[in-house]
Amino acid sequence: MKVTLKDIAKETGYSISTISRVLSNVGKISSKAREEILQAAHKLNYPTSRIAGYELRKKHLNIALITDFHEGEFYASYYLGMDRAATAEKARLSLINVPDPSKNIKKVLSELIAEKYYDCAIIFAPELLMKDYEDLLDEIPDHFPVVSNALIENSVLSTITFDGYSGGHQAARLFYKSGYRRVGIVKGPVTKAESRFRYNGFKDYVDSHPDMDLVWEFQGDFQFNSGVQSFHDMVESGKHPEAVFLCNDLMATAFVDTAMVNNVSVPDNIAVLGYDDLPMCRHNNLTISSVRTDFRQLGFATIQALKNRFPDNGNQHGILSLIPVTVIERESIGVKIAVA
Predict the structure, then answer these.
(1) Quick one: 190 and 249 in the same domain?
(2) pTM for the whole thing?
(3) Is 10 a domain residue?
(4) Which whole-number Å values give the CA distances from 115 to 10, 68, 111, 250, in the listed order?
(5) Contact 48, 311 (CB under 8 A)
(6) pLDDT value of position 216
(7) pLDDT digits 0-9 by tens, 9-44
(8) Pairing mode, strands 289-292 and 326-328
(9) Do 95 and 148 belong together in one domain?
(10) What is the C-alpha to C-alpha distance for residues 173 and 287, in angstroms, rounded to an integer?
(11) Average model confidence (pLDDT) across the chain
């Protein structure tokens, strides 16, 4: 239903003429009345394009970060980086945990919008499919900006995430630069677009170098046990890659620990590279090389995108923005010494 000046008058108790002067930015109005009227207009979703000189006058932008939060360093590092960016941007970030997002996120998002406390939302739910995002669009009004931090292969919703393809590409390039030609990879869940992008970047680099071979692959799931299982699969396969890229740090840590327990030296017998550069990479007995994803930078870019959507007041845009990643070299890489 269309919001009118009468609705704002009913909400605030001010006359329609006073409200009209505030929204038109003419005449002398007390700062108290102006603030109350603008806040009411925002609360009632009065079109901001019809407010002269409109700007968000609240001290803080209230952002809902919607995710299926799991135990472990990844989610802690992600949330910490986002929260630090929000603090620097004078925004309030609230973590909203949604178990099984594919079933529940539509209902939760609708309830948050109806509460009218939050100004916008960030969704991080890598398990969602394009169809899930298309269904969400029906629930999101134009005045409520939403950005996804998880990769959507066809970005029907504005998406800001890390450049996973480049991460995989840089991983293979580091192996090549370090002298490794027979390489392996432990992949992430095939259902997650980000996993496929990391794999594709890695494989494309290998395929573009005739003297480099992808001799072993293992289908992992980003969990610790997957890293353990991948090591045993590699040994049993007899393929013996010189270096292995594991598509997240938890699997990489498990792989390194299992190798050491089985008297396989890292990096002397096999080099290892992870992904995300979580604290565990620095704190492991043998420090682990990893593709670094800067969560604070992700937070800044995401919040800026949300802020830029307010004056627009148009449709949700399906724009994909990628945050650069870099490789951090540590003890687990080493350099292969050619045998004369």
Answers:
(1) yes
(2) 0.80
(3) yes
(4) 19, 21, 6, 38
(5) yes
(6) 98
(7) 888 999 988 888 888 777 777 878 887 888 888 778
(8) antiparallel
(9) yes
(10) 20
(11) 89
